[in-house]
Amino acid sequence: MKKKFKAKKVKVKAKAKKAKLSKRKLALISVYDKRGLLRLAKGLIKFGYDLVSSGGTAEALKKAGVKAVEVSKLTRYPHMLGGRVKTLHPIIHGGILANRSLEDHLKDMAKFKIKPIDIVVCNLYPFEDTVAKPDCTYEQAIEKIDIGGPTMVRAAAKNHKDVAVVIDPNDYPKILEELKLHKGVITAKMKKELAVKAFRHTQHYDTAICKYLEGIGAGIGIGGGFPVRINLELEKIQDLRYGENPHQKAAFYKDIKVGSGLTHAKQLHGKELSFNNIVDMDAAWAAANYFSNPTIAIIKHTNPCGSAQANTLLEAYKLALASDPVSAFGGIIAANRKIDSATAEEIAKLFVEVVIAPGFDKKALTILTQKKNIRLVEVGAGEKVFEYDYKKISGGFVVQEPDAAQLGINEIKTVTEKEPNLGQMEDLFFAWGVAKHVKSNAIILVKNGATVGVGAGQMSRIDSCEIAVKKAGADKARGSVLASDAFFPFPDVVEFAAKHGISAIIQPGGSVNDQKSIDSANQHGIAMVFTGRRHFKH
Questions:
Q1: Cβ within 8 Å of residue 346, ≥6 positions away
Q2: Of 91, 162, 292, 442, which has the fewest beta carbons less than 10 angstroms from its beta carbon?
Q3: Is 108 helix (H, G, I), strand (E, B) or coil?
Q4: Cα 315 to chain centroid, rounded
Q5: For 111-167, what is each residue's pLDDT tens digit?
Q6: CA 359 to CA 482: how far, in whole Å?
Q7: Confidence bin at 259 (pLDDT 50/70/90)
Q8: What angle, rounded to 10 degrees, do the helices at 37-46 and 55-63 form?
Q9: Which long-range contacts (CB under 8 A, 24 or more apart) does 469-474 make?
Q10: How sure is the predictor about 431, in pLDDT bands with cuts at 50, 70 and 90?
Q11: C-alpha–C-alpha distance, residues 208 and 196, integer Å
Q12: What is the CA radius of gyration of the chain?
């Protein structure tokens, strides 16, 4: 076996032709994306570089009449294993990784006849584009995992003191300008910038592969446990006017692994967005889109001050605004339907920061764009994907599954002698849906499909209840239903609700004092249902 293997090796070497290289500097080009390739290649030759290339890149250069030495001629080994092994050779990686200031590196280069490579131009197989195709097979995905490319990129980026690594065709003009200004040399400053970009690129590439393999494996996502490591891949969308306060700088980023949501929205009109606008828009969009009927949510500081569902968007808007017209001033309005002209005319009467919706009809845009500063934001329907909920803490994040579960009619349990009627039940479900979007402690009063009072973010539940009733006023509170995002530790909320004529209550239950609350509800003729699930929002 050994003799046979040696004979084959000699035969391969005998066939290989030795590369003829001048004493000029060397640039290695191996790219899948061939945009701007010829201009760059000709520019490199002009500024004193010989070119080494492989595979499709070498063919493209040869076809265009640009001289380049094949990698296989330099290494004296052919491409093998169906193209999986091309540049993985000491002649290539020695030329890239050699530290030209170390004597032992120079000795090794002389001993093994390794020529230094000063520029590496490389971009990778389109793994993400491949796996995004609906008919992509596992085998096709695996073959589009680039090995030689990332290895060269990382090697060149590591040795950026001596080597410039170029991974983005958009940088080619900048590289040629640099060579022109500095007589064929790329400055240390630019080499370092290119190296940082290269490492970011390979990090993103590996994350995409990991995400794909996790996605087709078992035990990932809902019910399967959390990954040991989470790589957040964020891409800047835009700088913002300011952060939570004007003295804080801020920017808006998207998670490149998520193909839907607010980060894919399009601003159609108005001044620049601020940090608070983005946060409030997200809260408003979530609150409106939780419901299937035409729904409006009006948000102030991430809490709904008014929310309603109705047969038409215009009717829903009027009901939502009536919930708390004072707080609605300067708020964010979200709709789960395209904004029509009738709704736009009503919105135009109020000062609001942002209107966010799946779209705006032509007449609605004409009406709303008369207001110079109002921000109009269109969010496409995009496919909903599972996203973890991240909250920043000092030194890291806490991560949870999103509170996305819907409440089914078979999940609730009437615990009082009196059962809610059909109208009350519809309002109870709507109030419960609103409660999940209100900061805890949350108490929501709803009547006829619209909030009439919202108590949010208080340190005690009875305080939230008092605020909700105060917001509603005596007339609107009477006959409304109440939702609480968590159980009642004492019967005080039930007693307060009875005093103000509230007719039905929905809450999780689970307190050691549940029976006292049930007894109080029975005493005052209030219907009460338990959900068995709470909706804390912090």
A1: 314, 317, 318, 321
A2: 292
A3: helix
A4: 34
A5: 888 899 999 999 888 888 888 888 888 888 888 888 888 999 999 999 999 999 999
A6: 33
A7: low
A8: 80
A9: 469/445, 469/496, 469/500, 471/323, 471/324, 471/445, 472/445, 474/500, 474/501
A10: very high
A11: 19
A12: 32
Task: Read off the pLDDT of residues 197-219 as tens digits, 9 standing for 90 and up.
Answer: 999 899 888 888 887 887 765 33
Beta strand 413-414 pairing with 527-530: antiparallel
Domains, the chain, in order of start with CATH, read 9-215 (3.40.50.1380), 238-378 (3.40.140.20), 410-530 (3.40.140.20)
**Burial level of 160, CB count in 10 A (0-12/13-18/19+)?**
buried
CB 469 within 8 A of CB 482: no
Q: What distance in Å separates the CA atoms of residue 185 and residue 354, rounded to the nearest whole number?
A: 50
Tokens 């615990």 appear where?
A: 415
pTM of the model: 0.69
Given a contact cutoff of 8 angstroms between Cβ atoms, the answer to whether 425 and 449 are in contact is no
CB 424 within 8 A of CB 444: no
Using alpha carbons, select from 433, 426, 427 the residue that is nearest to residue 452.
427
pLDDT digits (tens, 9 = 90+) for 335-351: 999 999 999 999 999 99
In this structure, are residues 389 and 537 in contact, taking their beta carbons and an 8 Å threshold?
A: no
For residue 500, what are the CA distances in angstroms to 94, 99, 249, 480?
Answer: 82, 81, 46, 9
Q: Are 91 and 52 in contact (CB under 8 A)?
A: no
The helix-helix angle for 148-158 and 188-215 (nearest 10°) equals 140
Six-digit token pair at 176? Answer: 């040629």
Across 256-358, where does the E strand assignment appear? 266-269, 295-300, 303-309, 331-335, 352-357
Question: Which uninterrupted H or E stretch holds 452?
Answer: strand 450-455
Beta-strand relationship, 69-70 and 49-53: parallel
Residue type, 326: V
CA atoms within 13 A on the CB side of 75: 23
Name residue, tokens 């380049």: 68
Tell me which residue of 342, 334, 271, 350 sits closest to 302, measured CA to CA: 334
Q: Is 452 exposed, middle or buried (0-12, 13-18, 19+ CB in 10 A)?
A: buried
Strands 251-255, 234-239: pairing kind: antiparallel
Instruction: Please give the Cα distance from 24 to 487 (Å, whole number).
Output: 78
Do the Cβ atoms of 392 and 497 come closer than 8 Å? no
Structure tokens at 278: 């983005």
**CB-based contacts of 3, cutoff 8 Å, min separation 6:** none
Q: Write out the catalytic residue numbers.
A: 158, 301
What phi and psi values does residue 166 have, to the nearest 5 degrees? -125, 115
Contacts of 414 (CB under 8 A, 6+ apart): 420, 527, 528, 529
Residue 74 CB neighbours (<10 A): 25
Under 8 Å between Cβ of 127 and 205: yes
Give residue 519's identity as a one-letter amino acid code.
D
> Cβ distance 268 to 365 under 8 Å?
yes
Q: In 3D, which of 493, 431, 427 has the Cα closest to residue 458?
A: 493
User: In this structure, what are the phi and psi dihedrals at residue 453, rounded to the nearest 5 degrees?
Assistant: -160, 135
